[in-house]
Amino acid sequence: MGGGYHTSWKAPPDHRKDPAYRASGRRMDFTQAVHDRRSTLGWTTAELARRADLPEADIEAIEESDVDPTLELIERLATALEAGTSPEFRFEDLAA
User: Fold this and answer.
1) Of 94, 96, 75, which Cα lies nearest the Cα of 30?
2) Is 15 buried (19+), middle (13-18) or exposed (0-12) by CB count in 10 A?
3) How far is residue 38's CA from residue 63's CA, in Å, rounded to a whole number?
């Protein structure tokens, strides 16, 4: 009898078209990018908060995907994370 843990989870195609689902994915990508860069620099959330002039609770909320990032927040974090003052944005052709 088969049992055990799920090794993967696939969202139904109609869910992938839902704007809320897609926004959630972008928040998770942003969260991961902030966490990865902070970790690469060897900083704690407190250190990033100090450099970004934000409360540490805000950094923790960002890293838990509880924040919809504004352009102002993205630019502030880019500067604090020593990644420049203008994050790169690009559009890719998904038709390929």
Assistant:
1) 75
2) exposed
3) 10
Whether the Cβ atoms of residue 78 and residue 86 lie closer than 8 Å to each other: yes
Nearest to 75 by CA among 34, 42, 40: 34
What band does 37 get if pLDDT is binned at 50, 70 and 90? very high
Region 37-48: mean pLDDT is 96
The pTM of this model reads 0.74
Q: Burial, 50: exposed, middle or buried (Cβ in 10 Å; 0-12, 13-18, 19+)?
A: middle
* pLDDT for position 87: 63
Report d(CA 36, CA 65) in Å as an integer: 14
| Per-residue pLDDT at 85 exceeds 70 | no
3-class secondary-structure state, position 42? coil
- CA-CA distance, 94 to 96, in Å (whole number)? 6
